[in-house]
Every structure is written in C-alpha cells, then in structure tokens.
Protein 1
Amino acid sequence: MSQKSAERPLSPHLQVYRPQMTSVLSILHRITGAALAVGSLMLLWWLIAAASGEDAYNTFAWFCGTKLGVFMIFGWSVCLFYHLANGIRHLFWDMGFLFKIENAQAAGWAVLAFTVLMTAGSWMCFFSKG
Amino acid sequence: MHMKWEDKGIKTPLARARGLGASHDGTGRWITLRVTAVANIFLVAWFLWFVKASAGMSHSTFSAFLAEPVNALAMILFIVSVFWHACLGSREIVEDYIHHEGFKLFKLVGQTFFFFAGGAAGIFCVLKIALAGG
C-alpha cells in the first residue's frame, strides 16, 4: 500500500488511555513471547555446545555462571512464567471463560502472582541442595 | 449469473479475489498455535525439571543424561513444540505491525527459515548425543 500524499492525523490512544489490566497484560504477553523466541538462541547454543564436545560445553557452562549469563537466564525465566500463566488465561478465553471484566482482571492478578511465585520458587529450588 | 451474497461469507468479492487478510491464511495456524501452547505446558514442566537435574553436570555426565531415551525424546518434542509455537507467534507480530508487503514477506519467510533451521539443528544435536555418543 503506497503512502498517501497527505498524512492525516490519527486519534490518540497511548497518550489518552489509562493503562489497564487487560491492555498491559496483553502487550506484555507479546513482549515476553518475543523475548522467549530470542532466548531460544541460548537453548540452541546449549544443545550445539553439548553435541560439539567438552570444550564448547564448558564454555557454555562458564557463560551461564557469569553475571551477564545469570541475568539473561533470569530474565528469560521471568518471561517464561509470565507467558505460561497468561497463555493459560488466553486458553480460558478461547474456551469462552473469563470474559466478564472482573473475572478477566482477577485472572490477571493470578497471572502476576504466579509469575512472581514461580520465578522465586524455581530459583530457590535451583540453588538449593539436592 | 449473479452470485447470492449469502453464499460467499463476509468478504466483498474484491477481498475474496485478493486472497484473505494480512496473513493470507488463518484457521489452521490459530489451531496449531493453541495445540502447541497446550503441549508446551507439559513440555516446559519437563524442561524445568531437566534443567534443575542437569545443573552442574560435567560434559560426559550431561551427554549420558540427555541420551536417556525419555530425556532425548522429551527434548526433541520440546524443541518441535516450542519452535513451532514461536514461529507462529512471531508471524502474528509481523502481520500486525508490518504493512509493506515486500518487507512483510521477507520477514515471514526469514523467520520461518530461522525457526525451522534452529529446530532442525536442535533435534540434530539431541540425536547426535543420543544415538552417536555425542
């Protein structure tokens, strides 16, 4: 579609609409999804390193221990738990539930709580012995 | 001969001739996105367990661990489901924001290639470790 010769003004949306549970969680779902997709590169690195031999694997393991590595993995885990929880919320919508605005918002709070709890829980579990 | 409007669904004749909406496709992808989403719920749970179980392993221990049939199979299914889901999800993002038809096509094809190639590479590595001893 070619550009129109006169750029007509659009009605404002981001400048005027108050952020809400529905809209904010929706765009976060997209952002976390994109972040997870980018992070899949690190998953690939892990597998390729493991298949390439001991040196490559140890390099990967070293990177995972660095501050940057931990930060990246942590960020990926937050995105994972959020996207998982909100994804389930989406599946409920697909089945026809949670359309009443109060229910959608309550489920939204549950998604945020799940994200926080699962991130904290999984990292504590990861660093615990055994 | 004049076609009845009701027979043709919601599209105008021109829209129908041009071929669907932004994605030029639809229902199958919608369903597949949901099916892979449900599969991911289980596969991600396994993946988290696997990460915890394999943490700190040496290379040889890890290779033997991944080579165990259940782990290798689960990892392959995980790669297939996650990469397919990511491919479809990133399609939606491109379809929503990019309207230059040429650039959109470039991105869609390019992303599909990336996820297919990445998925193939991941599966190949798992098979190499499981069947050929890494």
Note: Chain A has a mean pLDDT of 92.
Protein 2
Amino acid sequence: MVLDGLDEWCAGAQSWQLLYGIAADSRLPLAESIHRTMESHAVSSLLVHGLATEAFGTFSAARKVISWIVEIVEEEEPTLLEEFRHGLEAIFPSTQEGQQPIRATRIAETIIFAITRRISRESHHSAVEIDALARFTLEAHRRCPSLKGGLLLIVADLEYWDRPSLRWLVRVGRLAKTSDQIDVFAFASIPQVSDENSLEEKILTEHGRFLERAVDTIFTRVTVGEESSRLVPTSELLSDHGTSFSHDDAFLEVGSALGYQNYERVFLICLRLLRDVRNDEEEAKVRRLIGVAYAQVGALEAADMELSLAIRLTKHLPFKAHLEYLLGLLATKRFYRLDEAEKHYARGEQLLKARDEATAEDKVERAWLMNGQALILTLEAKQVSGADCERLYRESLSMEMEAYGLVKNLKTPAASYLRHNLLANITFLLEISKRYEEATRFWKRTFERYLAVDNPGFAVAFDSRLGMLLAHCGRYAEGLEAMERARLKSQHLMDLFYEERICLALGYIAHRASNSERALSAFRDGARLALKLATYQSYREHISGILWCLAELGAVREFGVALDELASVPATRDFVLQIKECFLKSRSPLEALKKLEVSVPIPSPKMPAYISEVDLEGGPAQDLNRYLVSEGGPLTLRSVTK
Amino acid sequence: MTEKELSDALEDLMDEVCIDADDVEDEVETAQRAVVW
C-alpha cells in the first residue's frame, strides 16, 4: 500500500496519507526507506522524526520543517523571507532589545487575560501567523527551483506533533491548489479515548482527539498493518530536555502555550509544576491553570473538578473569590446554568465581604464577580420582554458601572484589562438594549482617544465596531466610511480573516442603505477572500449576499450566471444548486431565495476572537455575542434554568 | 435605577473616563483586545 501510494504520487496525484498499524520501532527504518526512494525522483523530501523529546513545544514540529525550507529560500528566493516576516517571527522570534519585546509582552498579557478571565479562545492572532506560515511554505514550493518538482514530508511520529504545528500542516493542505505537489506520508498511533481522570492519561487522550479531528480534515487514513504502538508515557515526555524551567519561567511558558491553544504543553508543564509544588497555595495556582485548559478543550466536568479543588486548597480569599468567578463563568458560558452561576458569584462576594478591608486585589475580584453577574442579568433579559426586560438591562448596566467604579483608579495590568472590558461591555449592553445612539457616543467617547497612538490593530477593532453601531443608528454613510477605514487597516496588517469579515459588514450596511450595487461589490470581495482563506461557511454567507443583491437589482440573467459560477466551488455546491433548482422553477430570484429562507447575512457585533477553520477546536453550541444582539428566545438547545 | 438616573450615570462615566496621554500608549493593546463578555 505504501509503495502504491508512492507510485501514484510520483504520477502527479496528490496524496496525504496517514499510515496506521506499524510498530513504533519499525517506522523510522521504513520512513528512511521512503526518503531514500524519493531521492531518486525529482522530489525534495524531508524526514521528520524525534518529536517526543520536544514535549509538544509550541511549533516545535513545524520549526523542523520550516527551518529546512528557510535554508533553501535563503539561497534561491530570499525575498520570500521579508514577504512572510510576520509569520516567520512566530517561530523564529526576534532577539533584538527595545520596543518590540515590550509590546510583544503586553500583547501576550492581554491574550492571557482574555483566556484566563473570560475563558475566551483567542486564536485569531495565531491563526494569522499559521496562515502566513502555510502560505510561505506553499510559495517556497512554487518559486524555489529545488522545491518546484515536488515536496514530500515523511513524518515518523505525528502523534507527538504539537497542536500549532498540526494546524500549520493542515493549513498547508487546505490552501494547496491541485497544481501544487506537496504531500505528506505520516505514521501515527492514536490512543484509545479513555474516561480516566488522571492528568497523565488525559494528556495523550486529549491530544488523540485533536489529532483525529486534524487528520480527518486532510489525510486519507490507511491501515497497513495490525501492530499497535505503545505511546511514550507522559512521565517520559517530562524529560529535562523538554520541560526544564525555573518556577517563574514555567508559568510564563504555560501562559504562552495557552495563547497558542497548545493544551498538551500546558498540561505537561502543569504536571511538572505539580510535582514541584511546596504548599497548597502553589498547588491551587497550578490547578487553576489546568482547569482553564480543560475548559478550553471542552472537558467541562474535569475543569469544574480542578477549579473546585483549587478552591479547597487555597486560603487566600481573593483567589478563592476568583475561582468562584471562574466556576460561575463556566456555568454561564458553557453550561448555560444561570442559577448555579449566581450561587458561585454570591459565594465569591461573601468571601470578599469577610475581609477587614478591601485591597486592590479584592476590588478587582469583586468587579469581575459583578461583571459575571451582569452577563447573567443580560441573558435573563433576553428571555423576557417589555418592562421586565428593560429593568434587567438597567440593572446590568448599573452593575457594570458600579464595577467600573471599583477599579477606575487601579493601574495594574489586570485592573486595566478589566476596566476596558467593562467599558466595552457597557457599549455592548447599550447596543443589546437598542440604545444605539448612546452606544455609539459611549464607544467613541471612551475609546476614540487610542486612535492617536496610530496602532492599526486597534484602529481595525475601533472602526469596525463603530461602523456597525452607526449602521444601527441609520447613519449608513458614516458607518460605511468607518468600515472602509477598518478595511484599509486590515489590509495594511495583511489580516485576511478580518478583511473578509469587514467585507461582510460593508455588504450588510450598504444593503441596509438600499445601495445594492455597493453591497454586491462588498459581498463579491468577501467571497473572493473567503475562497482564498478556504473558509466555506463564510463563503456561503457571501453567496447569500451576492444573490440577494442581484435579486433586488432585478438582474435575472446575472442571477443565473452567478449561480453557475458559484456552483463551481465543491464545498457550497449543494447549497447553490438548491437555489438554482428553485430559481429554474419560479424564474424569480427573490421568490427562490425567500422560499429557501436565504437572507442577507447579519455580521457579528465584533471581529472574531477565534478562527475555528484554523484552530480546529470546533465551535460553541451558540455564538453568545450574536444571541445577545438577536431578538432573544431560548439559549440554543439547552434551556436556561433559573 | 430609573431611566434618568441611568442616563445621568452614563454621562458622568463618559466624562470621567480620562486617561493620561502616557497611558494611552501603554494601554492601546489592552483596549484592542478587552472586548465583550
């Protein structure tokens, strides 16, 4: 089977094969044999192995491959290095002193706050880097003479690849064109999923789950034997080579790994920290990080257990209150059990009231508890209507403002993050309660001052948010201007993900302004970007926008032509053909779209914090932000209990 | 809280949110990422 695959590949067919059933000690000789075979063809191949000793270091596997590619690029196409500098810096960080490291620290800090304080996924920044690295790989293949004939990766131990590297590999496969000749032969064992609660057991089984998801997106699985492979036990992965850090550096490493959704790395370092803890307080801190990581991989019961254990271990009341807050947030955002969440927040408040005087830390934790409570009030408001709804919104706003009062004079990074979160939430609450003019004014008054710093990342966030708020006010011309500014900045940042979302928003606003021509142009731009990004759910949204605009313009012939063009994309073909079938029967574009309930897509209130097509971590049961600005109703399939 | 009290409180808060020019430089990345719940 392996030799058949090689022959087929050499004949020009694309093949990403994952081979099972070969004992670990047989794989390397076989991989070496394949490597030698490929050397006789006009194909550049690289054998990648020995990843177990890297202990899932972030981008450790990708770095081995990309280092090899960079050596070739330096000789043959050095301009590529500047073109993809941003992505390459993710795995070959600059060591220069000065402003850059300080800014990088602050960015990492805010991402960690978002992950640990809001249980947010925050994979957008790494998605941009992974996408850039994948495009670098493909461009190197297309432009370097040594790689043009074909590029083959032979991976002896895919089960030890860290998540960021797997995401890069899958991204290369997803973005490759049929004319590209990049292939992968990989060997792996995937452990049986276990219900064991021990962290050691969970590390490899959680990775196995992720590996299966990643593999199924791009590989063909081939069983070539019946031998099973023993995975290196977790305890052996904790060799000094892979995980030797000082205590403080270990926490920084955990933070960095969380920021890249590299959960196995998080678990491994935490396991090492647990072995070195000197007292209950230290153990509680580690258990908290494990709990957050469990929450991120969707192991919610395990997350609950770890955070509850941390509460029992610590005697530091503000930290206990913080842990109650995290449990409350989990109950709210993952279980939708609002009564349970309220109990956690109430317990947190009681703990802080028991203190003689409120320190800065007390104030921060109390403000977070109030922030969590405000979310509950807002979710409750979505379930009712009329005066009750308005009252709950006012209570939520009042709580957020009171929380702001607690932290307004505190200058720590934690307090700063919370202050800004509260101001953004107040804006959001005003929007949710349809007080659009106030929301717009509040957003501008509280955040516009940061435009003076000329930070394009902030400018995208500010103007894209402002654009949607202005549109809600009916101030469409201003809304479009703000969105166009955001688009220019996203292009400057080479952030295709945000540019595509902004095109969706531009199309939506132009459509609301009854400017179908402009909306059509924006949706077409967005569709091109979505295809380039291989984000087909987004592409489907733009298709809906394009077809609606053509229908409203009365462009019947163009509607038919568009259907034929759009049907050429396999991922959305069924959707388009359904519309085409309806259109052919009725000969009315509008009638066809209405019958199939195809509508102009409504953008999310804000730019996405995570990109599931790249991070491969799935999606939430329901997008809470979209739900909060919707007309309300039941929160997804689970009923909200109170 | 009544509607008027809420509006007044929002106005007061908007007046109050005032950050030194130095802090703006330091806090812009936080402002970018400290988004909603």
Note: The longest helix of chain A spans residues 360-381.
